[in-house]
């Protein structure tokens, strides 16, 4: 397990840090961790690295985090945890890619490839190592020896010795050209192992002697002398193994003795390979007890890996068998087998754990990709819905605008037609008024005292003689009710006579027109129609009947005309009530065409009401007032439905046609 960070004070005390700046302390802790790892003190290296990690507080300091996670992976790799190391190296690779440091990327690809080889994923390892090698060639990095060596290791594990040897020799050439004798020693060791595998012990010895010579030169040069001496122990152990393969026990004994003397002189820990070869030399020299003692002491002194323990136990089994202890030899051999199985199981578990982790990661990525794809689809759908909604809204707005525009055009056209109709109605009303002006001109051309009254006694036209008789100017009489100028008794008698006259031929009565003298007055309908009444004052022998038209027989269509007037009046009142919401009394008051009376406290338009029933219609109806009423309704009925307006206009035209027929005597 990785060491937990120590408090700052403990870090200073544990690693004897001098008071310095934070970056300097961080670099010192990294160097200390590297040295501890090189000495095999992995726990100390992890502790130093944990203290260094505690010094990093800036989340954006990617370079420092890269150095930390890279070193953590190296410690995990050295501790026999390739799966954990792989995770750290991949994390470091991601940081390096974020930094854009191609050299660091190539280095982490090498580390990833090494971890994958240890796990057993040779295809992935070869892919990562090949990528790293290609990148180093691209950036002109000549330090390609470690990558070539790792590629050779992959081919060796895949039991392709020829390819492995080819890459080993390329790596060896690079290391020797750069003067890296310690790293070259690993290549010599691997090449010698290949030589031993094919039974060429002589070649193995030559390779290892060359490595030993280079290491001695390195020690003399002072470059990492202690590390070179450690590797000398491994090379001497390899030479002893090669000598034993040739059957030269004496030379093997000398090589082991040299290695033991070197370790004793410099107080170096004995590697497992040297312990194993020393025990073999003792056993083959006829001293199995010494071999057993050495191996048992070695097993008890240090925690070896399962593979090394298995090799030592096998050698113990051989020593016991040579010492005449077959039972114990079998037990040792069984234990060696258990260690090998344990090692294989551990490798398998690491592989399964890595495969499971890869599967989970792949599954997580797949699920994440599916979630992202669904999110993209949802986003696309939302955008499509939004765009479709916007398009639909735009279409609706456009349609609404076109509809409003069409309605405005239609309203403008309707308004124009309405204005034209108003002008037409005004012209027609003016035409009716002009008829009254013609009557007034006719009366002014005579000397008779004659006046034209409507059914309510209102003066429509009056001659000059009549004005003199009433002793009032024309302006005060025209448009006014004549009974208002008489004495109350005379006024009541005149109103009664007017009511009776609507259904009678003529009527005579005596009135005091000037308030002093009484004159004979004759009332009779005007034969010109229009419901007007002729009032003649008997002041001269000239008969007022000259005002009337020549007697004519009543036309055949007279009754139809009367019925049509009633229908027109009913339609006009209906149109008024529908478009204004007001009643017929309001129509009479506002149009000023029909007189409004008060009967028993109620407002009534009795004259108008007679035109709403054919049975009550006067014998001589005021058809001009009916037309004026219809025109007034049309002119003030802006909200009147078009079909009602058309119907009312058609009935007006029909009424005018009747009047022309009556005038022509048809």
Can you describe what's shown?
- By secondary structure, the protein is mostly helical.
- It contains 25 helices and seven strands.
- It has helices at 8-15, 22-38, 42-54, 62-78, 82-99, 102-119, 122-139, 145-157, 161-178, 181-197, 201-221, 225-246, 249-266, 272-284, 288-301, 306-322, 326-444, 464-470, 474-477, 488-501, 558-580, 584-591, 606-610, 623-636, 642-664; strands at 449-453, 459-462, 507-511, 519-525, 533-537, 597-599, 602-604.
- A five-stranded antiparallel beta sheet has the order 2-1-5-4-3.
- Strand 4 (519-525) and strand 5 form a beta hairpin.
- Helix 3 runs antiparallel to helix 4, helix 4 packs antiparallel against helix 5 (82-99) and helix 6 packs parallel to helix 8.
- The longest helix is centred in the middle third of the chain and has 119 residues, at 326-444.
- The radius of gyration is 66 Å and the shape is rod-shaped.
Secondary-structure topology with pairs:
Layout: H1 8-15, H2 22-38, H3 42-54, H4 62-78, H5 82-99, H6 102-119, H7 122-139, H8 145-157, H9 161-178, H10 181-197, H11 201-221, H12 225-246, H13 249-266, H14 272-284, H15 288-301, H16 306-322, H17 326-444, E1 449-453, E2 459-462, H18 464-470, H19 474-477, H20 488-501, E3 507-511, E4 519-525, E5 533-537, H21 558-580, H22 584-591, E6 597-599, E7 602-604, H23 606-610, H24 623-636, H25 642-664
Antiparallel strand pairs: 1-2, 1-5, 3-4, 4-5, 6-7
Helix pairs in contact: 2-3, 2-4, 3-4, 4-5, 5-6, 6-7, 6-8, 7-8, 8-9, 8-10, 9-10, 10-11, 10-12, 11-12, 12-13, 12-14, 13-14, 14-15, 14-16, 15-16, 16-17, 17-24, 21-24, 21-25, 24-25
